[in-house]
């Protein structure tokens, strides 16, 4: 194997990032076995690295990779029949199951030598109307239910799997992260993560979690479960609860990729647009959130010229779209709050009464102590620190917030602004004890210093 | 088609406090459930309470320890089961959600199929 040209390496990396779910989902349809499909898709990417240099980078990398992966799968299936299979086959729609046999017409497409590896590779009759790029909002019009990626999404995020497992399987199967990368993202050992992923796959096969898009009646609840997984991925990446980095950008980026992919696959679901908007509008502030030394910068002190204007306008458009689709869901309201922040030229221009109003809406429909805490903070800016503090005091007894560092940090900030230095000091010290994130600890320690003695 | 066992877990203390009318009503609900799902039903029974249970474990001496009571003490104990046939977990869960579950809930377990 010779040196890989940088352009080829970049094209393969890009295809890995953008097409993994598409290629894997189309290959699973042939294998009905997640492990075997992953193996074949990995082979296909390895082969792309070897051959794209001499043969040229195909115009449709997703189709090329799918053809190679599926042909490899058919080869393996023919050669080894079912003997090598450790787990039962996935259950899928009868139509798909029939199509998954190495049927004569499919082999005819796949077999005639190297020709089909040309850029215009045909993978299957229905391949033509799919969008292997997947990322472009241009393909909104495509028949949403026809995409194999959705089957993979709903299988990974099936409620019969634990939430941790759903997130791990999504990162692995939908985003193509290695087990080591998934383990690093969640700060667990590779062995622990490997065991979690293996258990998840085993349950999918043994309990026969179907490789299928749920029927319309179940769709709202099931889409909700998928969005929860993507949101967890995002929030884990955005406010890394422990460790030295405030953010794990790879997780944030993957969650955005997934949200945008779901937007293509599930057009007309307001909350899907809402979640994509929330991620865009929050992540738009990434460049201003930490200073050169890695120190946390509060929203109030951020250099807003460093916010990503393109993400903000894309996100704001998505919020408006989501708000136009009936009663707004949780993520849509959260995105609307983020949009109000993002569209204020200066912190002092923030429309706090509107933010309090949006939190009120959130509290009425999705009450949680954390939402109540954020609402109290907004009240502190809309009506002054004394009112904010009063709103916080009613939360202090909430058992869910016991041990939650942000409550102490918010109290500390209100007390500081009220000039109640002694109490502020105690609250900062409490917050310091409760946070495990090094960047946030540094921030709190600096605030404590500024209080003087 | 696969088979799934739906294990019905019941709070026996609550069950003990039901009136005969309530018990008759619950029995009727189970009969109705059985009729609604007759096409997929492969078996099912209610069990006598855990106070009738006897557990058997091999002991270190190569013999068996026979003890009074259920294998594990839990607030909600196995009180009955249905054996059903379903194409996949989603179908099995749809049947499971329809089981009368007044004093607890159900667990759905795929039958280990020998391939």
Overview of this protein structure:
The complex is a heterodimer of chains A (453) and B (115). Among the domains of chain A are: 1-121; 351-453, Serine Threonine Protein Phosphatase 5, Tetratricopeptide repeat (Alpha Horseshoe). Helix content of chain A is 64%, strand content 1%. Chain A contains 21 helices and two strands. Residues 97-145 of chain A have low confidence and may be disordered. Chain B is of the alpha+beta class. Chain B has three helices and six strands, in the order βααββββαβ. In chain B, the strands form two sheets. Chain B has a four-stranded antiparallel sheet with strand order 2-5-1-6. A two-stranded antiparallel ribbon of chain B has the order 3-4. In chain B, strand 3 and strand 4 (64-68) form a beta hairpin. Chain B is flat and about 50 Å long. The chains are: A mainly alpha (453), B alpha+beta (115). The interface between A and B is medium-sized, with 12 and 12 residues.
CATH topology term of chain B: Alpha-Beta Plaits
CATH superfamily grouping of chain B: Dimeric alpha+beta barrel
Distance between the termini of chain B: 13 Å
Q: What structural class do the secondary elements of chain B suggest?
A: alpha+beta
Q: What separation lies between the terminal Cα atoms of chain A?
A: 66 Å
Short description:
Chain A has 453 residues and is mainly alpha-helical. Chain A has helices at residues 6-31, 34-55, 61-80, 94-100, 104-110, 148-156, 163-174, 179-185, 190-206, 219-238, 249-265, 270-283, 286-289, 309-323, 330-342, 352-365, 369-383, 385-393, 405-417, 421-434, 438-450, and strands at 242-243, 436-437. Chain B is flat.
Explain the layout of strands and helices.
The complex is a heterodimer of chains A (453) and B (115).
Chain A: H1 6-31, H2 34-55, H3 61-80, H4 94-100, H5 104-110, H6 148-156, H7 163-174, H8 179-185, H9 190-206, H10 219-238, E1 242-243, H11 249-265, H12 270-283, H13 286-289, H14 309-323, H15 330-342, H16 352-365, H17 369-383, H18 385-393, H19 405-417, H20 421-434, E2 436-437, H21 438-450
Helix pairs in contact in A: 1-2, 1-3, 1-6, 2-3, 6-7, 7-9, 7-10, 8-9, 10-11, 10-12, 11-12, 12-14, 12-15, 14-15, 15-16, 16-17, 17-18, 18-19, 19-20, 20-21
Chain B: E1 2-11, H1 12-16, H2 20-36, E2 41-46, E3 54-58, E4 64-68, E5 76-86, H3 89-97, E6 104-110
Antiparallel strand pairs in B: 1-5, 1-6, 2-5, 3-4
């Amino acid at each position: 194997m010779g040196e890989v040209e940088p352009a080829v390496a970049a094209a393969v990396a890009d295809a890995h990032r953008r097409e993994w779910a598409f290629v894997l989902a189309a290959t699973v349809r042939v294998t009905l076995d997640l492990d075997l499909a992953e193996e074949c898709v990995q082979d296909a990417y390895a082969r792309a690295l070897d051959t794209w240099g001499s043969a040229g980078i195909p115009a449709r990398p997703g189709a090329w990779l799918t053809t190679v992966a599926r042909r490899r799968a058919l080869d393996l299936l023919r050669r080894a029949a079912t003997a090598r299979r450790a787990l039962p086959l996935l259950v899928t729609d009868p139509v798909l199951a029939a199509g998954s046999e190495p049927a004569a017409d499919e082999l005819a497409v796949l077999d005639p030598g190297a020709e089909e590896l040309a850029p215009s590779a045909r993978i299957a009759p229905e391949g033509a109307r799919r969008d292997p790029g997947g990322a472009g909002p241009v393909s909104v019009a495509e028949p949403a239910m026809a995409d194999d990626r959705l089957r993979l999404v709903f299988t990974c995020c099936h409620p019969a799997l634990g939430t941790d497992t759903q997130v791990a399987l999504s990162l692995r199967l939908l985003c193509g992260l290695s087990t080591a990368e998934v383990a690093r993202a969640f700060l667990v050992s590779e062995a622990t993560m490997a065991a979690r992923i293996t258990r998840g796959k085993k349950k999918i096969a043994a309990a026969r979690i179907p490789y299928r898009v749920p029927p319309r009646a179940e769709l709202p609840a099931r889409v909700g479960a998928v969005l929860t997984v993507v949101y967890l991925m995002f929030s884990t990446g955005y406010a890394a609860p422990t460790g030295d980095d405030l953010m794990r950008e790879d997780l944030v980026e993957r969650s955005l990729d997934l949200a945008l992919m779901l937007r293509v696959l599930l057009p007309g679901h307001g909350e899907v647009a809402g979640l994509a908007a929330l991620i865009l509008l929050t992540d738009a502030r990434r460049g201003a959130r930490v200073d050169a030394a890695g120190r946390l910068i509060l929203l109030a002190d951020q250099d807003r010229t460093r916010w990503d204007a393109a993400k903000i306008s894309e996100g704001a458009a998505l919020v408006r779209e989501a708000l136009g689709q009936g009663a707004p869901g949780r993520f849509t309201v959260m995105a609307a709050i983020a949009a109000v922040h993002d569209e204020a030229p200066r912190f002092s221009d923030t429309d706090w009464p509107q933010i309090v109003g949006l939190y009120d809406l959130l509290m009425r429909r999705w009450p949680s102590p954390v939402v109540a805490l954020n609402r109290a903070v907004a009240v502190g800016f809309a009506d002054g620190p004394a009112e904010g503090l009063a709103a916080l005091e009613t939360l202090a007894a909430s058992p869910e917030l016991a041990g939650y560092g942000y409550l102490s940090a918010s109290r500390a900030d209100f007390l500081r602004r009220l000039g109640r230095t002694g109490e502020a000091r105690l609250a900062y010290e409490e917050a310091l004890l409760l946070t495990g994130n090094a960047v946030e600890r540094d921030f709190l320690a600096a605030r404590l210093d500024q209080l003087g003695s | 088609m696969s088979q799934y066992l739906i294990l019905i877990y019941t709070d026996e203390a609550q069950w003990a406090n039901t009136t005969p009318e309530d018990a008759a009503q619950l029995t009727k609900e189970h009969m109705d459930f059985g009729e609604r799902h007759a096409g997929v039903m492969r078996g099912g029974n209610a069990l006598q309470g855990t106070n009738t249970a006897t557990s058997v474990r091999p002991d270190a001496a190569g013999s068996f320890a026979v003890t009074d009571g259920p294998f594990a003490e839990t607030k909600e104990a196995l009180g009955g089961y249905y054996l059903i046939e379903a194409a996949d977990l989603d179908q099995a869960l749809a049947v499971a959600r329809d089981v009368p579950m007044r004093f607890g809930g159900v667990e759905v377990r795929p039958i280990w199929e020998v391939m």
